[in-house]
Amino acid sequence: PKIWYIMSIWIFTAAAQKTYFTKVHGLPNITPLVNSVQETPEPIPTTVKGTIPTWIHGSLLRNGPGKFEFGNQHYNHWFDGMALMHRFQIEDGQVTYRSRFLCSDSYTQNSERNRIIVSEFGTLALPDPCKNFFQRFLSRFEMPKPTDNASVNFVKYKGDYYVSTETNCMHRVDPNTLESKQKVDWSKFIAVNGATAHPHFDPDGTAYNMGNSYRNKGAFYNIIRVPPERDGPEDTLEGAKILCSIAPLDKSKPSYYHSFGMSENYVVFIEQPIKMDLFKIVTGRLRGKSLNEGVYWDPNQETIFHLIDKQTGKEMPVKYYTKALSTFHQINAFEQDGFLMLDMCCSDDGQSINNFLIQNLRQSGEALDEMYNTMGRPYPRRFVLPLNITSETPLEQNLNTRPDSTATAVCRTKNQVFCTFEDLHGEDLKDYGGLEFPQINYARYNTKPYRYYYGCGFRHLVGDSLIKMDLESKKFKVWRQPDLYPSEPVFILSPNAEEEDDGVILSVIITPVKVQNKMITLYNIYQCIFCLNPFILFSLAEVPVNIPYGFHGVFNSSA
Description:
With 559 residues, the chain is mainly β. Helices cover 8% and strands 38% of the residues. The chain is globular and about 65 Å long. 50% of the residues are buried. Its cofactor is Fe(2+). It is an enzyme of class 1 (oxidoreductase).
């Protein structure tokens, strides 16, 4: 049987302008999903109902914000919350749970002073009240130090697990105890000021990532390569290299990016019109503004796809353009018959990143409905990029000759191709609010033609359903229950699997309502789902502690 086990989440929010994308009414309040919780540093048992496949051995590791205030000071943005790591250990059909706050410098300093000392994406730390007026005034001219609050994802380099955000600092952690072992700074190894929390991997373990650098001549986007080998037990990012540097369209206003695409031979960078005004960011402390105040959406600018050869490190001379769109997560990318297929979840509106304010997530009634309805929905789309562009390639003619594909690619000049997408879904996906947190059978089908992808439906500000999409039919299967909010699905391949979708999907499913008449504001359910038609509950493990909604995670099969 083909099984799906479930776990993970992430989301986007609305546009400031009053453009209504949907007409949803009566959304339930989800405040408990974004409240602070206590850590559970020692393993606790769960109550298993049903049967968890005994061949699953390992741990589901998840990351996300878990503390939203220190003393009487509160964070403004969902991304600002202190990193809380989670571990669901699965062994012999049983599950234990533990969690631990990351002992970052940010968390430690904030805890010691019982106030917010380190600025985050949407929160500017106030001057120390113990300083005199002149000292507080001068502190506004100091450059803020980047946070090491690595709350976005678990990533793996050279066999070690790290928790990562998008600054230059990661933390190496013990995947069994969740203890923080070492702070690792990208800038000590290569000239970058940060890196994404979504690296890609070649089959041999070589890792690729992207990070910005800020120089006298402005900003640059950098493709990073990290070798799989380690020279010793203390080795971290030694051997990392910048494969390629790309100049932004405007070096003073580079694009924000959360991830990137990768095929067998190319890294694909999407330069989207979510822009970072470096002057506003650098002067933010002086003006009393947080970093997110310098991030904005420019709908008048086209999106550009850059292709970088992984072997030579050279950027391809042809650039591919499309209309303004925003993307946070790619699904897959692969090459076939002279084309590169780039599949990703994207929206026609890019203001969502600044709408994930905690006050927005905690709204209720009409205000919550309006927040949701004015957000652009993310949908899975495919772009078909022709690779063999020469001086003989005809202009103003659709170069996409793939059968049954509605995407287009038209040469405007010898080095510019304008593309339109095809939908990787049917119209009925709109009833589920689009799809985000996409996942595939990465181990076998990353950079290859594939048939299935998984994700969360978003008929709320966070994921409220689990979806399995069949690319051949563009039909999907759904698991959805009232008041249950699943996280990003993580696919695990079954032993001796022959079919692409023969495996399980892990997802942490939580609820903001009381369950089983227990006086618990937030009761969490870790569920295993068996897929027939539609998703049918297969087994679950109930966790008797509060868990907030998180971002991303991985399965550690070696635990």
